[in-house]
Amino acid sequence: MEQTFKQIGKSYAVAAAEIGCSKPTLVGVVKHSRWPKKNAAALHENLKVFFKQNGADIPECLENEPEAAPALNLESEDENMLLRKATLTQAARQAFGLARDPFNDEIGSAEDVFLTPDIRYVREAMYQAAAHGGFVAAVGESGSGKTTLREDLEERLLRENRPVLLAQPYVLAMEENDIKGKTLKAAHIAEAILEAVSPGSSPKRSPEARFRQIHQALIESHKAGNRHLLIIEEAHCLPWVTLKHLKRFAELKHGFARLLGIVLIGQPELAHKLAENNPQVREVVQRCEIVTLLPLSDGKLKGYLKHKFERAGGDVDKIMDDAAIDQVAARLTIHSRASREMAGQSLLYPLAVNNLVAAAMNQAYMQGDAVVYADAVAGA
């Protein structure tokens, strides 16, 4: 069909206006035989009329009924998974006028971090825990930007010359039980705090002496003008007993002054563990603020892409049309059945958006398109 269409000599935009469909839809049908799910039969007939009125032979593929794009299985497990890693090719990057890849290892400074009102709130909650003491759990899906905010916090404390000492226990093999891996215990946290506050000090052998040593080290460091922050990543893997012990770490004081702020960073399972109706951690729930990293919905998607492209020397309006951005939102919205209603669940988190848009840009370049259209996003 594509060769016959080219013989007519009209652009996709002009032809789409005559046929009565969008340009991305027409490109998808002509180039890839990708029919829309809705109104495919009407488009099929309009295409036949278009070829006939423009003096071209009707392509053989239009003699049969169109096969609409297969509907997504909205309850399949695959639809709940994020997209595979995609890297923008050098050729695509050059074709779209980008000085560097805007989606891969792109965070090099605080200016590279895209801030929405939701992200600002989480960012400030973490900062307040560091500067003034507090107990915060930052929760978000995989790829939502949790680690980026932790790195941003470290960078901000350095940039502002804040005297905050960070204790970050290693969580490389941490699991919530000792069958799958190794649990992170209060003793391990105490060792990490002591190393941060008093490097080189050997922890006492007995638990009583060790925790007294930690408390005294925090007091001495506080008198020297330091603040202290405990950061635990992958906190959704913390066992119940360790979560309960964290409350006691948070209550370490010197007079009225809190000696230790705590930031937990984890996936939504952490919020489930810290649910109000969970009696196992009720003492923690009453003291820990849960802040959530939300998806890039409610019009934030284009702002995110605009920021990403500008940081790489590009212009979102010259790289993607609005229909393509809408298609990104559609691709990253899944549905699950709740009672008898369909409830949309957004996966518009930075990592998923990065992977999908990079794949769509590679696809658009291979198709020879100067701009990323919806069909490239649909086929990515």
Structure, briefly:
With 380 residues, this protein is of the alpha/beta class.
Could you walk me through the main structural features you see in this protein, from its secondary elements to its overall organization?
It is a single chain. The protein is of the alpha/beta class and 380 residues long. The chain folds into three domains: 2-62, Orthogonal Bundle (434 Repressor (Amino-terminal Domain)), CATH 1.10.260; 77-107 and 296-379, Helicase, Ruva Protein, domain 3 (Orthogonal Bundle); 117-292, 3-Layer(aba) Sandwich (Rossmann fold), CATH 3.40.50. The protein is built from 17 helices and nine strands. The strands form three sheets. It has a five-stranded parallel sheet with strand order 2-3-6-1-7, with helices on both faces. Strands 4-5 form a two-stranded antiparallel ribbon. Helix 6 (117-132) packs across helix 7 (146-159). The chain is elongated and about 90 Å long. The model is unreliable at 68-81 and 338-342 (pLDDT under 50). InterPro entries: AAA_22, ExeA_AAA_ATPase_DNA-bind, P-loop_NTPase. This is AAA family ATPase. GO terms for molecular function: ATP hydrolysis activity. It comes from Paralysiella testudinis. Residues 132-274 form the ORC1/DEAH AAA+ ATPase domain.
Q: In terms of topology, how is this protein built?
A:
Elements: H1 2-8, H2 12-19, H3 23-32, H4 40-53, H5 90-95, H6 117-132, E1 135-139, H7 146-159, E2 164-167, H8 186-197, H9 207-223, E3 227-232, H10 240-250, E4 253-254, E5 257-258, E6 261-266, H11 268-273, H12 282-285, E7 289-292, H13 300-311, H14 316-319, H15 322-331, E8 333-338, E9 341-346, H16 350-367, H17 374-379
Parallel strand pairs: 1-6, 1-7, 2-3, 3-6
Antiparallel strand pairs: 4-5, 8-9
Helix pairs in contact: 2-3, 6-7, 8-9
